[in-house]
Amino acid sequence: MESIRNNEPSTPPIQKLTVDKYSWKAMLGSAVGYAMDGFDLLILGFMLNAIASDLSLSTAQSGALVTWTLVGAVIGGIVFGALSDRFGRVRLLTWTIIMFAVFTGLCAFAQGYWDLLIYRTLAGVGLGGEFGIGMALAAEAWPSKYRSRVSSYVALGWQVGVLLAAVLTPLLLPTIGWRGMFLVGVIPALIAWFIRHRLHEPDVFTQSQKSPKPSLSTSFKLLIKDKDTIKISTGIAILTSVQNFGYYGIMIWMPSFLAKQLGFGLTRSAVWTSVTILGMMFGIWVFGQLADRIGRKPSFIVFQIGAAVMVMVYSQLTDPYTMLWAGALLGMFVNGMLGGYGALISESYPTEVRATAQNVLFNIGRAIGGLGPMVIGAIATLYSFQYAIILLAGIYIIDMIATIFLVKELKGSELQ
């Protein structure tokens, strides 16, 4: 077992043996929060033109609204993850949801670029804690035999939020405008708060509070405390980076490629996006089911091989209809691995640094993966989009090597 798991208190771990009402509330509260994350980022993308027109923003200023939302999310994820290990999952999720709701609501009343930028950044900080803290809460609230499945259900929240944004924004934006859409964005936050406000802390977290709490700086140091810990942290960081790189690289550039190279119009590109997202959702669900049955490492390797193969195959397709259904398979393998990180990280680190590990390692992947569109765009400009996609397949080979040599199989282990 990893050495980071060897410094736990002498008290035995609390084993969650049954699925009860608390388990479902914890999972639902975490999933709704992550759905809010996906919903918020996508509606912002849809509204940029309207905001820019109304507030007379430049292209650079419009892009900065997205960039600083993501910067805020990374900061919030790291800070709130560490705080939740110290003060509690439910308490910090409540704080973050209130912060997000307040500053998203204020966006509706922004009078210019700078106040909107500040509101968006601070709303992003509130969003940042959702993934890691929610994953830790869900993992601690469910029995070990369902841990990967419940982690995948939380991960599905993002895709549900994206789909809701894709459906609702075209319907509501012409009627209520971008200011009204920001107010609509507060609704998922209120739902998440309602679900969470009666939750208590998981038993495994409560037991961990009997031991001395590490300082915030110590929490981060525990992720690289020795050779074995550095090994697992490096492995997981590679996994999250590759998954985010592939996801952002493909989802940002593929619609443009389909339009320019194959003549896809907006409607057909939207159909491709919807089909691909449905494939991603199916992949996340399948990953959770598979990982609880055959193990975490074999599941990651299956999906990594599938991603590499589908990326290569996809780069050679030219028939529009074939590309539509093949997009679902591509999405299934490229993003399905998102369903496995929650369980893998939860099992690799003790309770006192679990949410810290979730948010730090995932946000490292988000930061590196965010370079995907830029790198693929540069390669496509110098050579071709097909060449960029072929090179993309190579990163999944790195992913497989990291999984085989750096990641430990912890299926069925109790949380410490």
UniProtKB/TrEMBL annotation:
Transmembrane segment boundaries: 31-52, 64-83, 92-111, 117-138, 150-170, 176-195, 230-250, 270-288, 300-317, 323-344, 364-383, 389-407
**GO MF annotations in UniProt:** carboxylic acid transmembrane transporter activity
- Tell where it localizes: Membrane
Against CDD domains, the record matches this protein to: MFS_MucK
**Record's GO cellular component terms:** plasma membrane
Residues covered by the Major facilitator superfamily (MFS) profile domain:
26-411
Q: One Pfam family of this protein, by short name?
A: MFS_1
- List each coiled-coil range: none
Keyword rRNA-binding among UniProt keywords: no
Q: How does it sit in the membrane?
A: Multi-pass membrane protein
Q: What is its main location?
A: membrane
Q: Which UniProt keywords apply?
A: Membrane, Transmembrane, Transmembrane helix
Please name the Gene3D superfamilies in this protein's record: MFS general substrate transporter like domains
Q: What's the protein called, per UniProt?
A: Putative niacin/nicotinamide transporter NaiP
Gene name of the encoded protein = naiP
